[in-house]
Design goal:
The structure holds two protein chains of two kinds.
Chain A (H helix, E strand, L loop, with lengths): L3 E10 L2 E11 L4 E5 L6 H8 L6 E6 L8 H4 L3 E4 L11 H11 L5 H9 L14 H13 L5 E5 L7 H15 L5 E5 L3 H4 L5 E6 L2 E7 H7 E6 L4 H5 L5 E5 L2 E7 L3 H4 L5 E2 L3 H20 L1
Parallel strand pairs in A: 3-7, 3-8, 5-6, 6-7
Antiparallel strand pairs in A: 1-2, 1-4, 8-9, 10-12, 10-13, 11-12
Helix pairs in contact in A: 4-5, 5-6
Chain B lengths: L21 H4 L5 H15 L2 H23 L1 H7 L11 H24 L2 H4 L3 H4 L6 H34 L2 H6 L2 H19 L1 H13 L4 H20 L3 H10 L21 H9 L1 H23 L4
Chain lengths: ~290, ~300
């Protein structure tokens, strides 16, 4: 059974189509990044998966419909919505008491262990903590929940690079194993490229690209081409072209690496570069046209 | 409101068959435990609900003690003025002041209960935990209907106890302490907990619904009905209904009538009449409707 299974997932707000019939299947043990521009439908998809919003189409999370079974589902699904949802009046000790009180799969000792590694005081209130510490606290609570699915919606937004790095390190080293599944959205695509096992581009309510990281490395290649050889390289029909320090970097999809090597060193591109190539052109056009 | 429920295969049963999802086979916390922690978190978040009455009681006691020390005789006598004025005894005054504070606190609490969690976005944290909307809303309603009346009772009893200890023997001998406290508890549980239930339900519903200015949304529709009824039908049935409910209804035991010194102890006959009054049950039914609507709203709503 898949952890998340959606067929024709659709959500309309008034006249705006937020999700336009998405098919999605996430298997156990994957870390899937949902990547898209603002307003692409990422948060709507996540809200539907968490049972926070009703939806059309089929959606099963751990075998249940999240809209009708949210509170039961939350025994096995954990989520961090964004950095600022921990109640500001909460004391750290109260947060531990409360989650231990209501969550059957919460390991309090584990959470206290995570908190002990930070500078967070047990009697502090959330409002007294820095943004980074609040995220550490939330992550400590969530990592101590033995959940099968963890959903992270922009979990590191507004944090500095040290906290962001620490966040993903903790997630991979102390939490993730092959029996858990993580679904996350973020704008800091480059930072999570080596965290993900799969990613999905979503744009205007539709899936633009789904790809596993193994497939990604085989499928995309980029090469920086000397200006004299640009015309020849362009004949191989690059997906996208960008200028870096006066040199052209060409992005190819499903191109023969052997042939590309004659133009220079062939690299695996960043997800962000592919994102710009796949989504950027159409989005830029529609944004300009909208004005 | 979009009611586009999933067209996904319906669950054959709320609980799974063998081989079903482990998520569904997982043991849950008992409902009582979820309710208990939901109530505790309300008291953590809204400490003013017991701090405000405590402060009022403390200020009252301070004033009372100063009064006793300075003018012990005139103090007691003043409140028993032979002219038969409707002045309250200091003991009644204490319970009146604390109860008034409790009413104000309850209105503030109810209007914020389902609103604040949306405006500070913490609703996303609460909804990430396996606590249902029903449990949450019932816990919030029970703060107004059960927890606060009991806290108010305890504060009044302690306040009056201290007053009795600090005062002259005259007050002791003239005061039927236990019947007075029994009447107080009866009054709080019947009138404030049960008869006022539709008010709390309405305030919680508005709290779940309003994006801002919850107080206006709670009061303007009521005022509109009052005005329209008056202008269109030239009647004031709604106003009379509200006044009767605020007054505690015909069956609830009232405060001591003017001139009478202390509340009388409630009798089983009082209770029987109260439980038999249709007003109690229509009120509770209205409260249930309001709360059901609040639960539904909370289910749909996210941060504002």
């Amino acid at each position: 059974m898949s952890v998340i299974e959606a067929t024709g997932l659709r959500k309309v707000f008034g006249t705006t189509i937020a999700l336009d019939g998405i098919d999605l299947r996430v298997e156990e043990g994957r870390i899937l990044g949902l990547i898209g521009p603002n307003g692409a439908g990422k948060s709507t998809a996540i809200n539907a998966i968490l049972g926070l919003t009703p939806h059309q189409g089929q959606l099963r999370v751990l075998g249940s419909d999240p809209w009708t079974a949210r509170d039961r589902l939350m025994r096995e699904v954990a989520f961090i919505a964004d950095v600022a949802v921990m109640p500001r009046w909460f004391r750290v000790s109260q947060a531990l008491d409360y989650v231990a009180g209501v969550h059957p799969r919460f390991d309090r000792a584990k959470a206290e262990g995570f908190i002990a590694r930070t500078a967070i005081g047990r009697s502090s209130r959330v409002r007294e903590l820095s943004k980074g510490m609040v995220t550490q606290l939330h992550l400590a609570l969530v990592m101590a929940i033995d959940a099968r699915l963890l959903v992270l919606d922009e979990p590191t937004l507004g944090l500095d690079i040290l906290y962001r790095k620490q966040f993903y390190d903790a997630l991979l080293n102390d939490y993730f194993d092959r029996s858990r599944t993580i679904l996350l959205t973020t704008h800091q695509v480059e930072e999570i490229q080596n965290v993900l096992t799969d990613f999905m581009f979503i744009n205007r309510g539709r899936i633009a690209l789904t790809c596993s990281m193994e497939e990604f490395e085989a499928r995309y290649a980029e090469v920086t081409v000397h200006p004299e050889r640009l015309a020849a390289a362009r004949e191989l029909r690059p997906l996208h072209e960008r200028q870096v320090f006066g040199r052209s970097t060409l992005l190819f999809e499903r191109a023969d690496r052997g042939r590309l090597q004659q133009f220079g060193e062939v690299r695996t591109p960043g997800i962000a570069d592919v994102f710009v190539a796949v989504i950027g052109a159409s989005t830029a056009a529609s944004r300009a046209g909208g004005r | 409101m979009a009611t586009s429920d999933s067209t996904a295969m319906p669950d054959p049963s709320p609980e799974p068959q063998a081989g079903g999802s482990p998520a569904l086979r997982l043991a849950a916390m008992s409902p009582v435990r979820l309710f208990y922690w939901s109530v505790r978190r309300e008291l953590w978040e809204n400490r003013f609900v017991y701090i405000a009455p405590l402060i009022v009681a403390a200020v009252f006691l301070l004033g009372f003690v100063i009064g006793v020390v300075h003018l012990p005789l005139s103090h007691v006598n003043a409140s028993r003025s032979p002219a038969g004025h409707q002045s309250l005894t200091p003991l009644d005054f204490a319970s009146f002041v604390v109860m008034l504070t409790y009413l104000v606190v309850t209105v503030i609490y109810c209007l914020g209960a389902l609103h604040n969690e949306r405006s500070d976005r913490s609703i996303l944290f609460w909804k990430s935990l396996p606590v249902s909307d029903v449990t949450t809303v019932i816990a919030k309603a029970s703060i107004a209907m059960v927890v606060l009346p009991l806290i108010t009772f305890a504060i009044i009893v302690v306040t009056q106890g201290i007053m009795l200890l600090a005062s002259t023997a005259a007050l002791w001998t003239r005061t039927p302490i236990l019947p007075m406290w029994a009447a107080l508890l009866y009054h709080l549980l019947t009138v404030h907990a049960l008869y006022y239930a539709p008010f709390y339900g309405w305030l919680l519903l508005v709290s779940a619904w309003a994006r801002r200015a919850a107080f206006l949304w709670a009061s303007v529709p009521v005022a509109a009905v009052l005005i329209l009824e008056r202008l269109v039908f030239h009647t004031s049935a709604f106003a009379n209904m509200l006044l009767s409910r605020i007054g505690g209804g015909p069956a609830a035991m009232p405060f001591p009538p003017p001139g009478n010194m202390a509340m009388q102890a409630p009798t089983l006959a009082n209770l029987g009449a109260f439980l038999a009054s249709p007003g109690l049950w229509t009120g509770l039914a209205a409260c249930a409707l309001f709360l059901a609507a609040a639960v539904r709203l909370r289910r749909y709503q996210g941060p504002i």
